[in-house]
Design brief:
Keywords: Membrane, Transmembrane, Transmembrane helix
Radius of gyration: 13 Å
Mean pLDDT: 92
Number of helices: 1
Low-confidence stretches: none
Shape: rod-shaped
Amino acid sequence: MDSDHIVIVMLFYVLACIGGLVYAISFMGK
């Protein structure tokens, strides 16, 4: 019944993971 909520949580989790990877790569690049 809460499929929309699950999708939002998954999208947020994916965005957080991608953001963390980009931050780590940019930090390592410096």
